[in-house]
Amino acid sequence: MPWPNTIPSDLRKALDNTLGARSVGSAEVWGAVKEWLEAHEPEAPE
């Protein structure tokens, strides 16, 4: 999968859910991003 130019809809939903929590920190945001990256395995940009 090439690196997306805009936020994919499923990643947006995951981040919206994470950021909508009452108490959220960088670890929770990274967890959502990491899960998405592991599921989609995009190639890093050059």
Tell me briefly what this model is.
It is built from two helices and no strands.
Written description of the protein model:
It is a single chain. The protein is mainly alpha-helical. The protein is 57% helix and 0% strand. It has 2 helices and no strands.
Mean pLDDT: 89
Question: What's the β-strand tally?
Answer: 0
Write down the oligomeric state: single chain
* Category from helices, strands and their pairing: mainly alpha
Largest sheet, in brief, is: none
With helices defined by DSSP (H or I, 4 residues minimum), what is the helix count?
Answer: 2
Alpha carbon gap, first and last residue: 14 Å
Spans where pLDDT lies below 50 across 5 or more residues: none
Work out the helicity level: 55-70%
Rg is 11 Å
Strand content: under 5%
| Order of helical and strand elements | HH
Gross morphology is elongated
